[in-house]
Amino acid sequence: MNNFETNGIWFLPETPDRKITGTLSFSPEKIPQLKLVGELRQFENIEEKFDNPLTYPIINGWLVSAPGKSEAVTLFKSSQKKEIKTGIQTSEIYPDIIIKGYHFSAL
């Protein structure tokens, strides 16, 4: 796969109506990274976020391709960096596998 950095809309298979925007970056020399504006999960409190592992077996998304077109993508075995931020919440997620062209709901 060639290098790319593409904007998209991201969601978990179990909550397909909760979509957030973000940018997926890939380079053969680096770990793939998804930078989101917001969180994929809603947390009741800060302890819940830090007491549980932030891992996602599957994340689905739509990548922006040509104007008016999008491409399905699924990220597998992703982990999220744990951090506290003020202001606009952002998240950094690191997938092990990227598959373009398909959405999956289970492994």
Structure description:
Helices cover 6% and strands 54% of the residues. The chain has 107 residues and is mostly beta strands. The chain starts with a strand and ends in a 7-residue tail after the last strand.
From the alpha carbons, calculate the radius of gyration and give it in angstroms: 14 Å
What is the share of helical residues? under 10%
Strand order within the widest beta sheet: 1-2-3-6-5-4
The pLDDT mean sits at: 87
Question: How many β-strands, per DSSP?
Answer: 6
**What is the CATH level 1 assignment?**
Mainly Beta
**Assembly level:** single chain
**Fold-level CATH name:** Thrombin, subunit H
Separation of termini? 22 Å
What does this entry show, briefly?
The chain is built from 1 helix and 6 strands. The protein is mainly beta and 107 residues long. The longest helix is centred in the middle third of the chain and has 6 residues.
Q: What topology does this entry show?
A:
Blueprint: E1 4-12, E2 15-26, E3 33-37, H1 46-51, E4 55-64, E5 70-80, E6 90-100
Antiparallel strand pairs: 1-2, 1-4, 2-3, 3-6, 4-5, 5-6
Question: Could you name the key traits of this structure?
Answer:
107 residues; mainly beta; six-stranded antiparallel β-barrel; Thrombin, subunit H; single chain; 1 helix
